[in-house]
User: What shape does this take?
Amino acid sequence: EQPGFDLPWAKVMRKALLMLLFGDCLGKLYYPAVAREKEKGAAKRLHAAYLRHAGQAIEQNRPSELYRILDHAVTDFAEITEENDNIPVMGVVGEIYLKYNAFSNRHILDWLADRHIEVVAPSMYNFFINSFVNNHINKKQNIKKPGMPLWMSDALYKLVRFYTRKFDRICSRYRYYRPFADLFKDAKAAEKIINLAANFGEGWLIPAEIANFAENGVNNVLSFQPFGCIANHVISKGIEKRVKKIYPKMNILSLDFDSGTSETNVFNRLHFIVK
Assistant: This one.
């Protein structure tokens, strides 16, 4: 909140949601494709091209055009993807900046893709809509009063899910596409691991995403944390024993990052889980 700055949410909300879902879907097409591409570099070229197409549609205030653009992207990514169900799969959880900024995580996702490992990154969408679940948690546990009535919050969540399912239908033609999660369902799984009152930052979202991975057959997970961050480092390390008890097949490698992190140490540890 800043004096003199007023974001017109009523005008930008739908556009922002569509952009968020489009970006996530493009990642859900890119990461399986780059690990299976018939021609090296084809997936990166497609990814860059479709980001440009989407940017032009947004600049011209045509957000609905994103549906058509994504439909073409599904076809193009399918054409460059070699069918292979036997490659390793690696899930990624952790602090939002570390997960999505390649510079901050030492380009680990590219490193994995170069070794034909499919990266499954949780949707950025999860981070921005977990407040719908938090509204219920805060009221139930008397943490704080929700900013809006729960019936209104739930109605908005249903609207968001309507758009989410629309994007899922478009992308379902791609063989390796993984649909968006239902965060209320994942929160119930997370509740077996941690008290959902830990809803600051990523908080309960980390065990929720790990549980979602386990239930969908992704049993190797990298967890990225800024060293000493309570919402990430402390929670991620603290839940490992409980996660292993509930999901015995799950392997979690926690990687800590700060300004003095040794790149050699990070990649040495990565080699152990990859092998």
In short: The mean pLDDT is 92. The first helix runs from residue 9 to 36. The CA atoms of residues 56 and 62 lie 9 Å apart. The two ends are 48 Å apart (CA to CA).
